[in-house]
Amino acid sequence: SSPLCSSMVIRYSRLFGANSRSLVRNMSTGGGKKKSFFGSWTFKVGATAALGFGASVAIDRSIFHPRIETEIVEDLMLKKGGLRRERIVVLGTGWASVGFLARIDPTRYEVICISPRNYFLMTPLLPSVTVGTIEPRTVVESVRTLFPWVKFVEAECLNMDHANKTLTLSNGSSKSSFRVVQDSAKTRPDFTMAYDKLVVAVGAENNTFNTPGVQQHAHFLKEISDARRIRSAITDAFESAANPGQSDEERKRLLNFVVVGGGPTGVEFAAELADLVHEDLKTSFPQLKGLVTIRLVEAMETVLSMFDKKISDYTVEHFKTEKIEVLANTFVKSVNQDHVMIQKKGSKTIEPIPSSVVVWATGIKCRPIVEAMRKAIGLDVQNNFRGLVTDRFLKVKGCDGVYSLGDCATIENKQLTKDVEELYKGAFALGGNPKAKGVTIDAFRKFAESKSTEYPQLGFLATTDASEAEFNKADRNKDGVLELHEFKAALTAIDRTLKILPATAQVAAQEGKYLAKQFNQHPIPDGMQDGGSLVATLRKQYNAVKYPNGIEPFKYNHMGSLAYIGGDHATADMNGAMSNVLEKLGLSVATGKGVFLLWRSFYLSESFTTRTKLLLLMDWIRCKSFGRDISRY
Q: What is the value of pTM for the model shown?
C-alpha cells in the first residue's frame, strides 16, 4: 500500500476510536454534564417575557400614565391663569369609573375621581364573601393603587350647578372615624369644585318598592359592609340556635333564611349559603343541619328570568338537590323582624313564613344625587325615572360637558316611527318601485344597512336575513312592495325590539372604556395644554388610523352571562355573544361542573391586580382544603 493510504487509515482509526470512547463515556454517565436550568430555553423564554412585560409597564407608567406629582387638588375653581390641562371630574369608583380611569389619557387631562368609597369593589363576588368562601380584602382594591395617575378625593357630591360647571361636595357631619371612639380624624370641610367635563358614574341603590319593613329588617347585598353584616348574622343565627336554653320552635325559626329576588345576586347568595350549610356547618353544628331552610322568593315565573329558559329550568331542578325552596310567582308584602309576609300570584291570602335573616336582592333605583341632577337639568328633558338620560355618545341631555355611565344612566335611542315619512322617502330613493309606488325588498334591506348606525334597532336586519321576514310580515297585500302605511307598520314592529341595557358590570365597564376612547379623541380647546409632544402625536396618529370617520356611537357587545348555582355547578348563557357563533354551533347554553371552572377562571382573570388574583386563588384553595371560617369578628 502507498504511504497516503496508510496515513488515512491511521487517521480514521484514531477518529473512530475517539468517537467510540466518547460514546461509551456518554452512555455510562447519562450524556455527560447536565445542563443548568438557567441555561435552558425555558428559562430564557420566561425571562425574556418577564423583562418585556416589566419594560412595557415601566414605559406605560413613565410616559403614558405618569404618577401624579401632588395628590392635593389645587385651583379648585379653575381661576388661575396660564395654560392648563382640561379637568375631568369622575363621580364614583364602580365598574364604569374603573373602565374609564384605566384608559383615559392623563398626560392630556387633569383627572380627579371623587367618591365616598376609596376602593373598587368586585361586586359579582360579594355572595362568596357573605359565607367566608372569599375574604373581604380579596374583592377590594384601593383606587390610589389602581390609578396612581389620578387625583382621588374621598367625598360625596351633594349638588351640581351645570350652568356654572361646579359641584358641591361634603363628607357628612361626623368628624370621628368610629361610632364608639370619638376621635377627630375625619375632620373634612365642605367645598366647591369646578370642572370642564363631568362623568357621573355613581351607580344605583336598592329599591324597596315601598315594601314595609325592608329598610329596618332586611339585609342588602351591594357593598362590602353588607356582606360582612350578613356573614355575622348567619353565624349569630346558628350560635343562637345552638343555645341550650332555646325552644324547639324558636330554634327552627332561627334557621330559616329568606332570599328575596331570583336574579343572579339572589341565586348566587342562596347557592353560597347552601354550600356553607352542606360543606362546613354540618361538622360544626351536626344537630342543626337538618333544621336549616333556605327559601328564595321571586315575583316572576322562574329564577334567572333574564337567562335562557333552559338555564332557568335547570337551576330550579338543581336547587331541589341543594335543598333550596323556590317560591315563584310570589310577592313580599312586608318584612318583619321574625317573619316575612308573602302572597301568591292570583291569591288573596297573605301568609307568614318564619325567618331570622332576610336578604333583599331585587331592584335598583336612582341615588339622591342623580335625582337632584335630574331636577336641576329639568324633568321635561330628564324624563326617565331610571336615571340620567343620555344620547348614544353617553352625553347627558340638557347640559353641556356632562356624561353619565353605568346603572345611573339610560341611553335614549331614536325611534323610527317619529320620522316615518322622511325615512320612507329615503328608502324609496334606494330602489323603490315607481309603478307600484312602494319600497321593494332590496330597497328595504339597503335602508336597514344604511341606517343601522343611526338607529341601532335596525342592526339585526342589516346583519341577518331577518329583513326579508319583517318585509313579508308588513306586506299585507302581498304585492312585493311596502306602501307608506305598511312601511310604518314594519318600523313600529322594529321599534318594539328596542331594549334597555341591563344594569350589569359588563355594560358599565364597556361604557367606561368607550367614553375614555371618545375623550382621548376630543380636540384640545383653545387655551388648554396638550399632553406632551410624544404622547399627543402617538395618540393622534393611532386614532386617525383606527377611527378615520371619528368615533361611532356606543354599541354594547354582549359577552355572555354566568351564574353560580351551588354544589360546584354553574350556568353560562352565551346567546347573542361572540357574533352568535356559539349559538349556531348549539353551544350557547351550558351548565354543570365544567362551567363552574369557566366561572372561576373568568372572575380570576377579571381581578384587576396581581395581588387580588393571588388572594382570590389562595382563598379558593384554603376553602377547599380547610373549609370556611365561621368565626364572627
A: 0.84
